[in-house]
Amino acid sequence: MTGQEHERRGLGCDDAYSYGVAGNYVVAAVADGAGAVTGTSAWGAYAACQSVLTDGLQPAFVENFRSGDPEQLMRWLFDNALTRVTRQAAALGVEPMRLSTTLCVAVADHGRAVFGQIGDGVIAAELYDGRVGSLLIEEKDGYANTTSFLQSDRAFEGSFRTQSVDGVTAFALSTDGMSYKITDIGTGEAYEPFFRDSWQHVRAGARADQFAALLRGITDDQTGDDKTMVLAAVSGSAVGAVTDSSPAPGTSVAELETVPLTRGARRRGLWRRRR
Fold this sequence. Notes:
The strands form 2 sheets. A 6-stranded antiparallel sheet has the order 7-4-3-2-1-10, with helices on one face. Strands 6-5-8-9-11 form a 5-stranded antiparallel sheet, with helices on one face. The relative contact order is 0.22. Helix 2 crosses helix 4. By secondary structure, it is α+β, with helices and mostly antiparallel strands. It is globular. It is built from 8 helices and 11 strands. It comes from Mycolicibacterium monacense. This is PPM-type phosphatase domain-containing protein.
Protein backbone atom coordinates (compact mmCIF):
# COMPACT_ATOMS: atom_id res chain seq x y z
CA MET A 1 0.00 0.00 0.00
CA THR A 2 1.36 3.39 -0.98
CA GLY A 3 2.19 5.53 2.04
CA GLN A 4 0.45 8.83 2.68
CA GLU A 5 3.67 10.81 2.32
CA HIS A 6 4.37 9.16 -1.03
CA GLU A 7 0.85 10.02 -2.18
CA ARG A 8 1.24 13.63 -1.01
CA ARG A 9 4.42 13.95 -3.06
CA GLY A 10 2.91 12.23 -6.10
CA LEU A 11 5.17 9.18 -5.77
CA GLY A 12 4.39 5.51 -6.25
CA CYS A 13 4.88 2.57 -3.90
CA ASP A 14 8.47 1.33 -3.55
CA ASP A 15 7.48 -1.81 -1.59
CA ALA A 16 6.95 -5.27 -3.06
CA TYR A 17 5.83 -8.69 -1.87
CA SER A 18 5.48 -12.27 -3.08
CA TYR A 19 4.32 -15.57 -1.65
CA GLY A 20 3.64 -19.12 -2.72
CA VAL A 21 1.73 -21.81 -0.82
CA ALA A 22 1.76 -25.50 -1.70
CA GLY A 23 0.21 -27.72 0.94
CA ASN A 24 2.15 -27.34 4.16
CA TYR A 25 4.96 -25.42 2.48
CA VAL A 26 5.10 -21.65 2.11
CA VAL A 27 7.67 -19.17 0.83
CA ALA A 28 7.17 -15.42 1.24
CA ALA A 29 9.10 -12.19 0.82
CA VAL A 30 8.66 -8.46 1.36
CA ALA A 31 11.04 -5.75 0.20
CA ASP A 32 11.27 -2.00 0.69
CA GLY A 33 12.94 0.09 -2.00
CA ALA A 34 15.10 2.93 -0.69
CA GLY A 35 13.26 6.23 -0.49
CA ALA A 36 16.37 8.12 -1.56
CA VAL A 37 16.05 6.53 -5.01
CA THR A 38 12.26 6.21 -5.13
CA GLY A 39 10.95 4.90 -8.44
CA THR A 40 13.98 2.94 -9.54
CA SER A 41 14.19 1.28 -6.11
CA ALA A 42 10.69 -0.09 -6.70
CA TRP A 43 12.25 -2.23 -9.44
CA GLY A 44 14.80 -3.53 -6.95
CA ALA A 45 12.09 -4.53 -4.46
CA TYR A 46 10.04 -6.16 -7.21
CA ALA A 47 12.95 -8.11 -8.73
CA ALA A 48 14.10 -9.34 -5.30
CA CYS A 49 10.64 -10.66 -4.36
CA GLN A 50 10.11 -12.27 -7.76
CA SER A 51 13.49 -13.97 -7.44
CA VAL A 52 12.61 -15.46 -4.03
CA LEU A 53 9.26 -16.72 -5.32
CA THR A 54 10.81 -18.26 -8.45
CA ASP A 55 13.56 -20.09 -6.58
CA GLY A 56 11.60 -20.92 -3.42
CA LEU A 57 8.98 -22.87 -5.37
CA GLN A 58 11.43 -25.04 -7.28
CA PRO A 59 10.65 -28.67 -6.36
CA ALA A 60 14.34 -29.30 -5.70
CA PHE A 61 14.52 -26.34 -3.35
CA VAL A 62 11.49 -27.61 -1.40
CA GLU A 63 13.09 -31.04 -0.97
CA ASN A 64 16.44 -29.57 0.01
CA PHE A 65 14.72 -27.31 2.54
CA ARG A 66 13.24 -30.35 4.24
CA SER A 67 16.39 -32.43 4.19
CA GLY A 68 19.35 -30.05 4.04
CA ASP A 69 20.74 -26.94 5.70
CA PRO A 70 17.89 -24.38 5.61
CA GLU A 71 20.09 -21.42 6.55
CA GLN A 72 22.49 -22.20 3.71
CA LEU A 73 19.50 -22.37 1.34
CA MET A 74 18.33 -19.00 2.63
CA ARG A 75 21.71 -17.51 1.75
CA TRP A 76 21.28 -19.01 -1.75
CA LEU A 77 17.94 -17.21 -2.11
CA PHE A 78 19.51 -13.89 -1.12
CA ASP A 79 22.52 -14.36 -3.41
CA ASN A 80 20.20 -15.05 -6.34
CA ALA A 81 18.03 -12.07 -5.44
CA LEU A 82 21.06 -9.78 -5.56
CA THR A 83 22.09 -11.26 -8.92
CA ARG A 84 18.67 -10.63 -10.42
CA VAL A 85 18.40 -7.11 -9.01
CA THR A 86 21.81 -6.35 -10.53
CA ARG A 87 20.62 -7.70 -13.89
CA GLN A 88 17.49 -5.58 -13.64
CA ALA A 89 19.62 -2.49 -13.03
CA ALA A 90 21.73 -3.28 -16.08
CA ALA A 91 18.60 -3.73 -18.18
CA LEU A 92 17.34 -0.33 -17.01
CA GLY A 93 20.73 1.23 -17.70
CA VAL A 94 21.35 2.42 -14.15
CA GLU A 95 23.77 1.59 -11.35
CA PRO A 96 22.68 -1.24 -9.01
CA MET A 97 22.44 1.18 -6.04
CA ARG A 98 19.60 2.93 -7.88
CA LEU A 99 17.61 -0.25 -7.16
CA SER A 100 18.54 -0.38 -3.46
CA THR A 101 16.13 -2.50 -1.45
CA THR A 102 15.78 -4.29 1.85
CA LEU A 103 14.59 -7.91 1.85
CA CYS A 104 12.78 -10.16 4.36
CA VAL A 105 12.16 -13.82 3.51
CA ALA A 106 10.38 -16.74 5.19
CA VAL A 107 10.35 -20.40 4.14
CA ALA A 108 8.33 -22.79 6.28
CA ASP A 109 6.52 -26.07 6.56
CA HIS A 110 4.87 -27.73 9.56
CA GLY A 111 8.22 -28.89 10.90
CA ARG A 112 10.21 -25.69 10.93
CA ALA A 113 10.61 -22.23 9.52
CA VAL A 114 13.69 -20.33 8.46
CA PHE A 115 13.80 -16.55 8.17
CA GLY A 116 16.33 -14.32 6.46
CA GLN A 117 16.76 -10.57 6.38
CA ILE A 118 18.85 -7.66 5.17
CA GLY A 119 17.55 -4.30 6.34
CA ASP A 120 14.93 -3.01 8.74
CA GLY A 121 11.77 -4.98 8.05
CA VAL A 122 9.70 -6.66 10.74
CA ILE A 123 9.48 -10.44 11.22
CA ALA A 124 7.15 -11.89 13.86
CA ALA A 125 6.32 -15.54 14.58
CA GLU A 126 3.84 -17.50 16.68
CA LEU A 127 4.95 -20.82 18.19
CA TYR A 128 2.97 -23.91 19.17
CA ASP A 129 3.12 -22.89 22.85
CA GLY A 130 1.44 -19.59 22.01
CA ARG A 131 4.45 -17.31 22.34
CA VAL A 132 4.76 -14.42 19.90
CA GLY A 133 8.03 -12.64 19.26
CA SER A 134 10.08 -10.60 16.83
CA LEU A 135 13.00 -12.23 15.02
CA LEU A 136 16.20 -10.90 13.45
CA ILE A 137 15.78 -7.38 14.82
CA GLU A 138 18.23 -5.05 13.10
CA GLU A 139 20.86 -3.45 15.31
CA LYS A 140 21.01 0.26 14.57
CA ASP A 141 24.34 2.11 14.56
CA GLY A 142 23.67 5.64 15.66
CA TYR A 143 20.63 6.68 13.57
CA ALA A 144 17.24 4.99 13.79
CA ASN A 145 16.33 5.84 10.18
CA THR A 146 19.39 4.23 8.59
CA THR A 147 19.54 0.66 7.33
CA SER A 148 21.43 -1.69 5.05
CA PHE A 149 20.26 -2.73 1.60
CA LEU A 150 20.77 -5.85 -0.48
CA GLN A 151 23.30 -3.92 -2.59
CA SER A 152 25.13 -2.22 0.30
CA ASP A 153 28.88 -2.77 0.68
CA ARG A 154 29.49 -5.80 2.91
CA ALA A 155 25.73 -6.26 3.41
CA PHE A 156 26.10 -10.04 3.59
CA GLU A 157 28.97 -9.79 6.08
CA GLY A 158 27.40 -7.13 8.31
CA SER A 159 23.62 -7.20 7.90
CA PHE A 160 22.48 -10.58 6.57
CA ARG A 161 20.77 -12.54 9.36
CA THR A 162 19.08 -15.93 9.40
CA GLN A 163 17.24 -17.92 12.05
CA SER A 164 15.63 -21.36 12.05
CA VAL A 165 12.67 -21.90 14.36
CA ASP A 166 10.80 -25.14 15.09
CA GLY A 167 7.10 -25.23 15.80
CA VAL A 168 6.03 -22.06 13.99
CA THR A 169 2.23 -21.85 13.62
CA ALA A 170 2.07 -18.37 12.06
CA PHE A 171 4.39 -15.65 10.86
CA ALA A 172 4.32 -12.13 9.50
CA LEU A 173 6.71 -10.24 7.27
CA SER A 174 6.40 -6.46 7.08
CA THR A 175 8.27 -3.53 5.67
CA ASP A 176 9.13 -0.84 8.19
CA GLY A 177 6.23 1.52 7.41
CA MET A 178 4.21 -0.03 10.23
CA SER A 179 7.01 -0.27 12.79
CA TYR A 180 5.63 2.40 15.12
CA LYS A 181 2.28 0.61 15.29
CA ILE A 182 3.24 -3.07 15.43
CA THR A 183 6.49 -3.09 17.42
CA ASP A 184 8.10 -1.41 20.39
CA ILE A 185 10.21 1.04 18.42
CA GLY A 186 12.90 1.05 21.11
CA THR A 187 13.40 -2.71 21.34
CA GLY A 188 11.88 -3.99 18.10
CA GLU A 189 9.69 -6.47 19.96
CA ALA A 190 6.36 -7.39 18.41
CA TYR A 191 3.13 -5.85 19.69
CA GLU A 192 1.37 -9.15 20.42
CA PRO A 193 -2.30 -8.06 20.23
CA PHE A 194 -1.88 -6.78 16.67
CA PHE A 195 -0.31 -9.99 15.42
CA ARG A 196 -2.65 -12.33 17.32
CA ASP A 197 -5.69 -10.50 15.92
CA SER A 198 -4.21 -10.45 12.41
CA TRP A 199 -3.49 -14.18 12.39
CA GLN A 200 -6.96 -14.87 13.77
CA HIS A 201 -8.45 -12.93 10.85
CA VAL A 202 -6.34 -15.01 8.45
CA ARG A 203 -7.54 -18.26 10.01
CA ALA A 204 -11.13 -17.01 9.83
CA GLY A 205 -10.73 -16.45 6.09
CA ALA A 206 -10.60 -12.64 5.99
CA ARG A 207 -9.72 -11.28 2.56
CA ALA A 208 -6.56 -9.36 1.76
CA ASP A 209 -8.56 -6.29 0.76
CA GLN A 210 -10.18 -6.22 4.20
CA PHE A 211 -6.78 -6.14 5.85
CA ALA A 212 -5.63 -3.45 3.41
CA ALA A 213 -8.64 -1.35 4.41
CA LEU A 214 -7.57 -1.70 8.05
CA LEU A 215 -4.09 -0.43 7.21
CA ARG A 216 -5.53 2.51 5.27
CA GLY A 217 -7.49 3.45 8.36
CA ILE A 218 -4.31 4.00 10.36
CA THR A 219 -3.61 7.68 9.84
CA ASP A 220 -1.05 8.36 12.57
CA ASP A 221 1.73 5.93 11.66
CA GLN A 222 4.46 8.58 12.27
CA THR A 223 6.20 7.78 8.96
CA GLY A 224 3.82 8.23 6.02
CA ASP A 225 5.79 5.38 4.45
CA ASP A 226 4.57 2.54 2.24
CA LYS A 227 3.06 -0.39 4.13
CA THR A 228 3.36 -4.01 2.99
CA MET A 229 2.72 -7.12 5.07
CA VAL A 230 2.40 -10.84 4.35
CA LEU A 231 0.61 -12.93 6.98
CA ALA A 232 0.61 -16.74 7.06
CA ALA A 233 -0.98 -19.11 9.57
CA VAL A 234 -1.46 -22.85 9.90
CA SER A 235 -5.08 -23.68 9.17
CA GLY A 236 -7.32 -26.71 9.45
CA SER A 237 -8.62 -26.41 5.90
CA ALA A 238 -6.85 -27.09 2.63
CA VAL A 239 -5.84 -24.17 0.42
CA GLY A 240 -4.10 -25.96 -2.45
CA ALA A 241 -1.39 -24.29 -4.49
CA VAL A 242 -1.49 -20.49 -4.49
CA THR A 243 0.93 -17.78 -5.60
CA ASP A 244 0.64 -14.02 -5.55
CA SER A 245 2.92 -11.01 -5.85
CA SER A 246 2.87 -7.27 -6.22
CA PRO A 247 2.64 -5.99 -9.79
CA ALA A 248 5.72 -4.81 -11.64
CA PRO A 249 6.39 -1.06 -11.45
CA GLY A 250 6.02 -0.99 -15.26
CA THR A 251 6.72 -3.12 -18.30
CA SER A 252 9.65 -5.38 -17.42
CA VAL A 253 12.72 -5.03 -19.58
CA ALA A 254 14.56 -7.97 -18.07
CA GLU A 255 13.57 -11.59 -17.73
CA LEU A 256 14.07 -13.30 -14.37
CA GLU A 257 16.13 -16.47 -14.80
CA THR A 258 15.97 -19.60 -12.68
CA VAL A 259 19.22 -20.92 -11.21
CA PRO A 260 18.64 -24.70 -11.16
CA LEU A 261 19.02 -27.11 -8.27
CA THR A 262 18.63 -30.86 -8.57
CA ARG A 263 16.20 -33.49 -7.22
CA GLY A 264 12.43 -33.49 -6.89
CA ALA A 265 10.00 -32.92 -4.05
CA ARG A 266 6.54 -33.65 -2.64
CA ARG A 267 4.33 -30.99 -1.04
CA ARG A 268 1.40 -31.46 1.32
CA GLY A 269 -0.29 -29.78 4.26
CA LEU A 270 -2.22 -26.64 5.11
CA TRP A 271 -1.25 -22.97 5.23
CA ARG A 272 -3.41 -19.92 4.88
CA ARG A 273 -1.94 -16.65 3.78
CA ARG A 274 -2.87 -12.99 3.34
CA ARG A 275 -0.91 -10.01 2.14
